[in-house]
Design brief:
Largest sheet: 10 strands, mixed
CATH class of the largest domain: Alpha Beta
Number of domains: 2
CATH topology of the largest domain: Adenylosuccinate Synthetase, Chain A, domain 3
Structural class: alpha/beta
Distance between the termini: 24 Å
Shape: globular
Strand order of the largest sheet: 9-7-5-2-10-1-11-15-19-20
Strand content: 15-25%
CATH architecture of the largest domain: Alpha-Beta Complex
Radius of gyration: 22 Å
Bound molecules: inosinic acid
CATH superfamily of the largest domain: Adenylosuccinate Synthetase, subunit A, domain 3
Length: about 450
């Protein structure tokens, strides 16, 4: 009940889509509040697998409304295709609303994303951010520069022509021919006509739902450490994927939030450039990449892998106010000799850091993590999975329970869900922590 915010607690790709989809079983509305086609939320259903880039996962459930919220930047062509594909595959079971305030990513933004990366590399080799090349940064820059084209403009042909003319005036460095511009305008007009029935004011829908007492989930995209201000700047995305950003990106007031769920893998991954203190290379790195299927759902890039980093997790917990964690991909670590977890950093000057990483990306790149090694749990087998389905969290291996309690204790945020595979049913709820239990403790198997 209430408004549940789902936030990535690491560098993205924590399986937020899977957790949101799981929680959506009890929700009436699921809202994407930021980002756009840079996200790739993989959902594995009995009917087949699907990767959603812009459409909220809520549309996969009948009776659920998916909302592309005001904070998003959406590629109209990609969105149109995604909707059509879901409809053709009969996976579009709910309904969809697109905020008239959401901004459009235009072909010129995608060209600009590439141009900017080229300029960075040409000026200083190694300065590339490694963006997803979906036009995200330039579209947000135009949003804040007030040159943007909103979906409310897109569906009004005369307004669209007007806004495009202004926007092109800001980009003489991206020479486009008149013919190109005409073609883009015509194409956009056609796509906009198909999307128009979905475009509407979305905030009143959310406010009414809150008044009715419906459950609303704000589906995070990207993650706390990719936040434009609080992440590893400049190796970040261009919006606020934190819990506060989810409110700005939806139009819901802070007082309505009932839960903030941080989604974290049992290890860590990062794609694109930027510091990654607990990165693991060599054979172990290759093993985790292989076992975890660590390849980007949007770009196909191989993700760098590393151990769980409690300094960053504590930071993300404080920044977002997590009320619980969903711990994902625990099966990937099954059968290892032990599970290292970074509990603190030591800086080159000998300072110890436990919950506030340096704001400077170069400094963060030069810390030395201090690891504690926890006993590893056995590999997940069909038999173990059957027992978890039948008996619940009690059937989880003892070593995994110790790991879960360790994460809860160290971050002071209890783990409430554990995901041990990509499918919907491979998630177990550990129960709400008892009111009297210390922060971070788990009640399920003690009961
Ligand atoms: P952009 O969001 O395309 O501008 O990319 C900026 C940075 O964020 C790059 O390092 C991307 O790899 C990273 N990034 C953006 N979206 C995601 C995501 O959904 N998962 C993981 N990394 C992402």
């Amino acid at each position: 009940m209430g408004v549940i915010v789902v936030v990535g607690a690491q560098f993205g790709d924590e399986a937020k889509g899977k957790i949101t989809d799981y929680l959506a079983a009890d929700a009436r509305i699921v809202v994407r509040t930021g980002g756009g086609p840079n996200a790739g939320h993989s959902i594995h259903l009995a009917e087949g697998s699907v990767v959603l880039h812009q459409v909220p996962v809520g549309v996969l459930r009948s009776g659920v409304l998916g909302v592309c919220g005001p904070g998003m930047v959406l590629d109209p062509r990609g969105l149109d295709e995604e909707i059509r594909t879901l409809q053709e595959r009969r996976l579009f079971k709910g309904s969809l609303a697109i905020s008239e305030r959401a901004h459009a990513i235009l072909p010129i933004h995608i060209a600009e994303d590439a141009w900017e990366e080229e300029r960075r590399v040409a000026t200083r080799p190694g300065a590339a951010i490694g963006t997803t090349m979906r036009g995200i940064g330039p579209a947000y820059a135009d949003r804040y520069g007030r040159w943007g084209v909103r979906f409310g403009d897109l569906i009004r042909p005369a307004r669209l022509a007007d806004r495009l003319e202004l926007l092109y005036a800001t980009k003489p460095h991206l020479a486009t021919t008149l013919q190109d511009r005409e073609r883009v305008r015509t194409e956009l007009g056609e796509v906009a006509a198909r999307l128009a029935p979905f475009v509407q004011p979305t905030e009143p829908l959310l406010w009414s739902a809150v008044e009715r007492g419906d459950t609303i989930i704000l589906e995070g995209a990207q993650s706390a450490l990719l936040d434009v201000d609080f992440g590893t700047y400049p190796y970040v995305t261009s919006h606020h994927p934190t819990s506060a950003g989810a409110l700005v990106g939806s139009g819901l007031p802070p007082a309505e939030v009932t839960e903030v769920v941080g989604v974290t893998k049992a290890y860590a991954t990062r794609v694109g450039a930027g510091p990654f203190p607990t990165q693991v290379e060599g054979d172990m790195g290759a093993y985790l990449q292989r076992e975890g299927g660590e390849r980007g759902a949007t770009t196909g890039r191989v993700r760098q892998v590393g151990w769980l980093d409690l300094v960053l997790l504590r930071y993300a917990a404080r920044l977002n106010g997590f009320t619980s964690f969903a711990l994902t991909k625990v099966d990937v670590l099954g059968g290892l000799d032990d599970v290292p977890v970074a509990v603190q950093y030591v800086t080159p000057t000998g300072e110890t850091l436990t919950d506030y990483p340096p704001a400077d990306a170069d400094e963060l790149a030069h810390v030395t993590p201090v690891y504690e090694k926890l006993p590893a749990w056995p590999k997940f087998t069909a038999n173990l999975e059957r027992r978890i389905r039948e008996e619940g969290a009690r059937a989880l291996p003892t070593e995994l329970k110790q790991f879960i309690e360790f994460v809860g204790r160290e971050t002071r945020v209890p783990v409430e869900w554990v995901s041990y595979g990509p499918r919907r049913e491979q998630t177990v709820w550990l129960g709400k922590p008892h009111g009297s239990a210390p922060a971070g403790s788990v009640s399920a198997w003690a009961a």
